[in-house]
Amino acid sequence: MYIYHRLYFIERDTIKLLIKQSQRERKMLRKYNPVLVFILLMLVTSLVLGCSSQSTSQPSLAPAPVTETPTQDPFQTNLLEFDAWKEKMVGKINSDYYVIDLRSPAEIKLEKAIDGSINIDAKETLANSNVSIIREILGAIPEDALILLHCKSGGRVKANLAKFIEAGYTNVYGLNSWTAFDAKGYIGAAKINANTEHIKPDAWVAKMRGEIGKDYYIIDTRDQVDHETGHLKGAINLGAAETFTVDHSATMAVVGKAIPNKDSIILVHCNAGTKARVAQAHLKAEGYTNVFVLDNRMIIDKDGNYTFE
Questions:
Q1: What is the DSSP secondary-structure string of 220-261?
Q2: What is 194-308's CATH number?
Q3: DSSP structure class, residue 289
Q4: 3-class SS of residue 203
Q5: In the chain, what are the domain boundaries?
Q6: pTM above 0.85, yes or no
């Protein structure tokens, strides 16, 4: 009985102690609760500000690199074949467009020229670094005017097209063809491969197979006086300076009757090749496909015998 009584008092005292301890803890929590809340608020605020600071302090993105527009190659954009080049000749020459002839005066005298064209002898000026000649001759022409360049074969155009652009002219186009003109205003052009169509004596003579006037044809482009002093038997005399460059249409009518098949082999010669090249350009401009120039000096006696120098 004593033992149970003792246990009762111990249990009661323990419960009282626990209750008192719980009361003290609640008082401490009530005392320090605002402090804890404040600390928590400070922690949250610092975290928010820290994140905001990190986002605003991130390095700015580097600007996108500027892509430069590649410079256009004038050979791709301003060098034209005949049809495209001639289509630009709309309106009045020296008003709506300008034609610059890069040939020499001697070439122009023989081959004729476009009426109203402006001559700059490229071999005597531009080829010798005299680029200022462009401004000297074209100074009164606006820089954005339509300018059309041509020469004899396209070679001088290719060599000097960029020089006109560098001089400030922004609307310049060059003809990439062999040209053909006459005194009546004919303008023509042809594609000629000088490596295969301007040939040396052995290759030229080798094409004389079969019967002349049937299997092949020879056109002597020397003047009539030279032709009469001695010529190849069966050759057709059409002096370049007397026929092709005087009246292209009338001359081609004669050629058409003598050589109706435009795929026929035509061998063209003169004294050294200059006039033969003129005739070749006229023939090829009209669609004759197998025209070969003798690229060599040839001497012919009154009996038709010939030698090469």
A1: E-S-HHHHHHS--TT-EE--TTTTTTT-HHHHHHHHHHH---
A2: 3.40.250.10
A3: -
A4: helix
A5: 74-176, 194-308
A6: no
